[in-house]
């Protein structure tokens, strides 16, 4: 059947949010690092999958508060050359800049500003590492 819990969480006391890329506690976090260019976004890396999830602080966390408790926030999309990827957007704002962590170049973080402070979404191109059922519900 699959995991039925929340894919997005928000802690009101800590003012922090979390977006899970797979079932919480299924994988072990081996280390955590900031996303270069935005210190409000911390990436939890794993052995079995590249990034287990992201911890959000500050303004970025407050942006996802509105979707806390949601599941299946990603959509399956196609690249121009016909390859599948998973995409999540907070809104319909235009992507002005996209960045990745140097250790995982198959996951892009999108921003609506050139300074990478206005987080608006994620694209996961490493589809074999992640559960489609968890991300999109199929």
Using only C-alpha atoms, the radius of gyration works out to 14 Å
- The total domain count is 1
Task: Give the uncertain stretches in residue-range form.
Answer: none
Can you count the helices?
2
SSE string:
EEEEEHEEEEEH
Report the sheet-strand fraction.
35-45%
Shape: globular
Name the strands of the widest sheet in spatial order. Answer: 1-2-5-4-3
Number of strands: 10
Structural class: mainly beta
Gap from first CA to last CA:
10 Å
Biggest sheet layout: 5 strands, antiparallel
The level of helicity is under 10%
Mean pLDDT: 93
Explain what this protein looks like in three dimensions.
The protein has one domain. About 10% of the residues lie in helices and about 45% in strands. The chain is built from two helices and ten strands; from the N terminus they run βββββαβββββα. The strands form two sheets. It has a five-stranded antiparallel sheet with strand order 1-2-5-4-3. A five-stranded antiparallel sheet has the order 6-7-10-9-8.
């Amino acid at each position: 059947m699959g995991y039925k819990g929340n894919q997005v969480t928000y802690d009101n006391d800590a003012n922090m949010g979390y977006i899970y890329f797979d079932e919480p506690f299924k994988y072990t976090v081996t280390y955590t690092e900031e996303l270069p260019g935005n210190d409000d976004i911390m990436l939890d890396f794993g052995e079995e999958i590249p990034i287990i999830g992201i911890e959000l602080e500050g303004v970025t966390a407050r942006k996802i508060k509105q979707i806390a408790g949601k599941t299946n926030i990603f959509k399956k999309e196609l690249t121009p050359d016909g390859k599948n990827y998973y995409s999540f957007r907070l809104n319909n704002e235009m992507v002005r800049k996209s960045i990745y962590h140097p250790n995982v170049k198959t996951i892009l973080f999108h921003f609506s500003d050139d300074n990478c402070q206005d987080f608006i979404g994620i694209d996961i191109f490493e589809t074999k590492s992640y559960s489609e059922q968890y991300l999109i519900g199929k």
